[in-house]
């Protein structure tokens, strides 16, 4: 049975998956992060009509040297909200957007490395991301289409730590076979294509709000219209 890639994404980011990955331990977990990052690499460098998407800035000049994120022309992330009137919340939402873009780039773009993913994710989130990406590689799958992110909210937990929650709508995405290049557009949207996502972000020494843990609830009533 062919399933939408966004459903796979939601399954990969369950609380149980994050907890089991964090059980690896301190130093050992760090080495496993590196091993998973190596698995992210694709067979070829990025090419073939991709649109170049510079990372958004939270101000005219935030002083941070950020890696460029490139998505294929047939893949699009649409983020609703992002301007709250609170500069710090806006900075958190901007880096959350960059993290999501970097994850989707790593799934849909074959490249030797994906520096943006390692720039915007850390800890359990980086391990979970690598597992998620490798799941696509193992099945020779990717996807095309548009994912919508909405009801995005920031809650500060303590200095330098915040929670970002949002809904995800993947009804307009379609699986792509990497061997044949064929896209299956026959799958109809359903409640399982929606998810409620809860992430924790921490501000690092560079001033980047990195995602460090993720949970997701597929078909959440908070998000299904």
Beta content comes to 25-35%
The value of Rg in angstroms is 17 Å
Approximately how much helix is present in the residues? 25-40%
- Going by helix content, strand content and strand pairing, the class is alpha+beta
Number of helices: 6
**Secondary-structure element sequence?**
HHHEEEHHHEEEE
Average residue pLDDT = 80
Low-confidence stretches: 6-60
Count of extended strands? 7
Separation, N- and C-terminal Cα atoms: 25 Å
* Morphology call: globular
Instruction: Report strand order across the widest sheet.
Output: 3-4-5-6-7
Biggest sheet statistics: 5 strands, mixed
Structural notes for this entry:
The chain contains six helices and seven strands. With 225 residues, the protein is of the alpha+beta class. It has a five-stranded mixed sheet, covered by helices on one side. Strands 1-2 form a two-stranded antiparallel ribbon. A hairpin with a 5-residue loop joins strand 6 and strand 7. Helix 1 runs antiparallel to helix 6, helix 2 crosses helix 6 and helix 3 runs parallel beside helix 6. About 24% of the residues have low confidence.
Briefly say what this structure is:
The strands form two sheets. The chain has a five-stranded mixed β-sheet, with helices on one face. A two-stranded antiparallel sheet has the order 1-2. 33% of the residues lie in helices and 29% in strands.
Key terms:
225 residues; alpha+beta; five-stranded mixed β-sheet; 29% strand
């Amino acid at each position: 049975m062919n399933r939408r890639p966004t459903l796979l994404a939601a399954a990969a980011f369950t609380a149980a998956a994050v907890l089991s990955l964090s059980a690896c331990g301190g130093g050992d977990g760090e080495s496993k992060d590196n091993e998973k990052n190596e698995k992210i690499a694709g067979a070829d460098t990025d090419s073939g009509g991709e649109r170049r998407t510079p990372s958004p800035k939270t101000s005219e000049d935030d002083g941070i040297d950020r890696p460029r994120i490139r998505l294929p022309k047939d893949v699009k992330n649409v983020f609703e909200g992002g301007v709250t009137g609170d500069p710090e919340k806006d900075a958190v939402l901007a880096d959350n957007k960059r993290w999501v873009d970097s994850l989707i780039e790593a799934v849909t773009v074959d490249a030797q490395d994906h520096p943006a993913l390692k720039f915007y994710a850390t800890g359990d989130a980086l391990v979970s991301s690598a597992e998620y990406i490798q799941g696509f590689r193992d099945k020779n799958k990717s996807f095309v289409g548009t994912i919508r992110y909405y009801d995005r909210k920031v809650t500060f937990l303590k200095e330098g730590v915040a929670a970002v929650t949002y809904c995800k709508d993947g009804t307009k995405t379609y699986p792509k076979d990497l061997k044949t290049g064929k896209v299956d557009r026959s799958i109809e949207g359903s409640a399982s294509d929606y998810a409620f996502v809860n992430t924790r972000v921490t501000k690092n020494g560079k001033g980047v709000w990195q995602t460090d843990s993720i949970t997701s609830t597929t078909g959440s009533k908070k998000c299904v219209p």
